[in-house]
Design brief:
10 strands, globular
Length: 171
């Protein structure tokens, strides 16, 4: 490992969650208790293109996920162990943060990592807003912008952020 970390998302990025979403979407609305059920994580499959890309980087892996630790922590660790992916740190939302927007949580997580000496080289996510906010927030705190990768059709593609898409992020 070169100790130039990659920050990786889980749902929709490392894992294809379409089967879980089909089960949990009822009448056009997401049933969040169903979505955050650790039992339903078994419906997820790995996005092989993302897993291969991450392993090819040969860098430390830090995961930031909007999954709820108290509900899905054990099952998430089991999912990751089955992939034989060495994870340096797993950051998941606590139950008390379940209503905090994903982009706010992840912006806080990467700033926390950077403030603890982690030099982030890559961020891989399936959410453009998350990538835009991270590319805006890190330089505001004096950290360099990492390479950004948007997962599309199960594969990471280089992403050019849209500056000023979000003018203010409450930290």
């Amino acid at each position: 490992m070169r100790n130039v970390p990659v920050v990786l998302d889980l749902d929709g990025t490392l894992f294809d969650t379409r089967r879980r979403e089909e089960l949990c979407r009822k009448n056009g609305q997401m049933d969040w208790d169903c979505w955050f059920s650790d039992e339903n994580l078994k419906l997820d499959s790995v996005n092989e293109g993302v897993l291969e890309f991450v392993k090819s980087l040969e860098e430390d892996v830090y995961i930031t996920s909007a999954r709820i630790w108290e509900r899905q922590g054990v099952a998430t660790i089991s999912q990751l162990n089955n992939l034989h992916l060495e994870v340096r740190n797993l950051l998941m939302k606590p139950e008390s943060w379940k209503f905090v927007k994903e982009y706010i949580y992840k912006a806080r997580a990467v700033v926390w990592l950077a403030s603890h000496g982690v030099v982030i080289n890559h961020v891989i996510d399936d959410n453009e807003v998350v990538l835009d906010v991270i590319s805006t927030v890190l330089p505001l705190f004096g950290y360099r912008e990492p390479r950004l990768w948007l997962v599309s059709d199960g594969k990471p593609v280089w992403y050019k952020p849209r500056p000023a898409r979000i003018a203010w992020v409450p930290l």
